[in-house]
């Protein structure tokens, strides 16, 4: 199978997913509104956390931006899962499977759309941060790195959402994982430095991939561009994208094999 044979239908399905997302603002709005509200509440009520020993010498709002972005990216994965499940319920998925396109394109189209939406989510929060007084220490290159890490992670979140949709087969079950988003984010270093987390939260944060994603996006915002956290963020985002896209393809094949 040639690359062009996969790329063309994948891009076509990605464009379709993006058009459908734009037609349903009720799906897109929660991706940024809810993390924005959490960002406002955290900044308003926990600002004195910066007085704690071990907290970086930066503004609390600046520190929280990466946490809000990480939370938003996970919600994007939930949205992609719900959209996939709705296509299964409506019968569009069956028509898609019956069409002469590579099966992997069904997953890749959704994952690519997830990357584009994730990049837009990151831009939203960076602009929001600049409007409300944050500064991006890494400048334009730093902002681009934050967008790149976010887009790669968005691919992974989309792949995870599609994987769950193929297993669950209905939108209500996928929607049921929504509360878990907050649990997974809070046991990472998205909102507080790992050094300030109590045990066993600090242990979970050490092994939580979102810790490395959040730290990778936070570094260009609060301290310039440092090689280690940025490279760890890029590697973790790319790994999440590759692993969950591959698992989603396997889940699709398993679903088709069962009929």
- Write down the overall geometry: elongated
Number of strands: 0
Report the helical percentage: over 70%
Ends apart, CA distance between termini: 24 Å
Radius of gyration over C-alpha positions, nearest whole angstrom = 19 Å
H/E element string? HHHHHHHHHHH
Q: What do the pLDDT scores average to?
A: 90
Task: Describe the sheet with the most strands.
Answer: none
**H/I helix tally:** 11
**Class derived from helix and strand content:** mainly alpha
What portion of residues belong to β-strands? under 5%
Weakly predicted, low-confidence segments: none
Comma- or semicolon-separated keywords:
259 residues; mainly alpha; 80% helix; elongated
Write the layout of secondary structure elements.
Layout: H1 3-23, H2 25-45, H3 60-90, H4 92-98, H5 103-131, H6 139-168, H7 171-175, H8 178-186, H9 201-207, H10 209-222, H11 227-258
Helix pairs in contact: 1-5, 2-3, 3-5, 3-6, 3-8, 3-10, 5-6, 5-11, 6-10, 6-11, 10-11
Task: Describe the protein.
- The protein has 259 residues and is an all-alpha fold.
- Helix content is 80%, strand content 0%.
- The model has no long low-confidence stretch (mean pLDDT 90).
